[in-house]
Design a protein that fits this description.
Keywords: Ribonucleoprotein, Ribosomal protein. By secondary structure, the protein is α+β, with helices and mostly antiparallel strands. 41% of the residues lie in helices and 33% in strands.
């Protein structure tokens, strides 16, 4: 399947497709661990769209046969967003994307950082399987849980 993947920087032309994918992920995946109230607010408030617009210039896309199926957004050594179309969960797409991008980032920085919601068990498991280590937690009343801080060292 990876023969059909391509990776490239996001452009302004991708904004609409990226926003649509972000809404799909929030609606079909994030809802499973953050619940209806939080996800409905995130989508309906415009914050979902705004997050994509703010990170557009720092985003890299994973495409399958020219369709955007993944988005990775960085600010220096901080992974601010990592999304894979729920239809492609479990296909190796996320692993392929990480295998291409993470080594490039580790060549620039001694360590990488991200935060993840504690109820995102699938995400946390994926990160830990790939060598990320938890180094902190912060209670978040909005999500009725914790933000988990993870880092990956060279």
């Amino acid at each position: 399947m990876s023969d059909h993947y391509s990776i490239r920087p996001a452009t302004e032309k991708d904004e609409s497709d990226m926003i649509n994918l972000s809404r799909i992920i929030a609606d079909h995946y994030t809802r499973s661990y953050l619940g209806d109230e939080v996800v409905d607010w995130y989508i309906n408030s415009g914050n979902c769209d705004s997050d994509i617009r703010k990170g557009l210039k720092n985003s890299t896309l994973l495409l399958l046969d020219e369709k955007i199926i993944g988005i990775m957004t960085w600010h220096e050594n901080q992974l601010q967003g990592f999304m894979i179309d729920p239809y492609y969960h479990g296909t190796g797409a996320a692993q392929y994307f990480c295998n291409q991008i993470i080594p490039e980032k580790l060549a620039l920085y001694n360590e990488l950082h991200l935060e993840c919601f504690d109820k995102n068990h699938r995400g946390i498991s994926f990160y830990k399987k790939n060598g990320w280590k938890e180094y902190g937690r912060l209670k978040d009343e909005l999500i009725h849980g914790y933000r988990i801080f993870l880092k990956l060292e060279k």
